[in-house]
Amino acid sequence: MVPRRAAWPARSHWVLWLATLAIVTVALLTLRGRLDKAHVALVYLLVVLGGSAAAGRRLGSTLSVLAFLALNYLFLPPYYTLAVGDPLDWLVLVAFLVTGIVAAELLSRAQRLSAAAERAEAFRQADELKTALLATVSHDLRTPLTTIKALAHQLAARGEEDALSIEEEADRLNRLVADLLDLSRLSAGALPLRIELDAVDDLIATALDRIRGTLGMREVIVSRHGHDADEPILFARFDLAQSQRALVNLLENASKYSPPAEPIELWVERAGARVRLTVADRGPGVPEQDRLVIFEPFYRPEGVRPDVGGAGLGLAIARRVAESQGGSLTYAARSGGGSEFRFEIPAGTAAELAYVHDHFMPKHP
Question: Taking 70 as the threshold, does the pLDDT of residue 135 lie above it?
Answer without folding.
Answer: no
